[in-house]
Amino acid sequence: MAEKRHGAWFGFGFCGFGQALGSGNSHHSVHTPEPLHASDDICQVSAGWSYTALVTRGGRVELSGSVSGAADGCRDVWASEELLVLLRNKGSSSTELQAWVPGSALQGEPVWVRNLVSGAKGQGEDEPSRESRMGTLPLLPCARAYVTPEPPFCQPLAPELRVRQLELGAEHVLLLCATGQVFSWGAGRHGQLGHGTLEAELEPRLLEALQGLRMAKVAAGGWHSVCVSETGDIYIWGWNESGQLALPTRSGTEKKAEREEELNEDGLKEELAVAEVAVADVGAPAHFIAIQPFPALLDLPLGSDAVMASCGSRHTAVVTRTGELYTWGWGKYGQLGHKDSTSLDRPCCVEYFVERQLEVRAVTCGPWNTYVYAMEREKS
């Protein structure tokens, strides 16, 4: 009989509000991955800037950080500074979507409720459920609408889009449809929409640069975007101020990042002056690239194939087919997991998991931190 492998969630990066990041010490950052702790095995993590929501296998959601609280019967969670959204079981054949003010500690009444018809949920042994890996929220199970952090809290989607995945960035949205095509809309001033301009798009617009390529995953960060193709290629675009695109960045970026401690709670304050912007032109050399408005193909070291990506405010994390984790971008709080606070403009393998013979299966980034699910590697 095959030996059962065990998995666990790990966290690293910003924990200035006491977010669940392993030891729970009062320092503001964790520079190397530490195991998370909860009342039961964790199956999902969703991180806002000041707090984190954990979902256990028993369906309990637990909050830590600037807000606290817990609730049972939870199937899925999505955390943001403005809104905490839960999918909770409501009888045997339906699910209730609840939107809470994070500071409510899940007490009293939610600010918005919607009943959804749902099917049975399957889950593999000792690894995150399919729903947690796919990140159902903010996309609703019906795939006809998605959650937004501001009223009316729910936005409809055209049924012809046949949505598989939807991700919210700070000011933009990425949508992956069943055919592997990608759509984007929202603000575009940092090139995060991938249409080659800095203009906003009010409605979902197809990324023509990726037509003919089938994508398997999408990820939206603060102002940058990532797609992973079915063949394991990575396409990345948007803002590159801290090297989050793994493209050449101007010298002194790290010193500039040190000044970013004055950012507001969502990390949304900009210091990008017009004189500092360099928009990448196709075929034109550049000493640095601040904005990449078209999807750019990115090669990982050793020719590794990617299977999953996630984006923080200004950092990027990718899981490879062989279970390695690569991170790059802004690293002030240790969110890259490389035992320091250095920022990087190139993908670098997180050696913690390699050294411990752990196979990374999933990654999800908060704005300034990173959470990883990893399992023991099979004995050869």
UniProtKB/TrEMBL annotation:
RCC repeats lie at residues 180-231, 232-322, 323-376. Gene3D superfamilies: Regulator of chromosome condensation 1/beta-lactamase-inhibitor protein II (2.130.10.30). This is RCC1 domain-containing protein 1 isoform X2. It comes from Mus caroli. The gene is Rccd1.
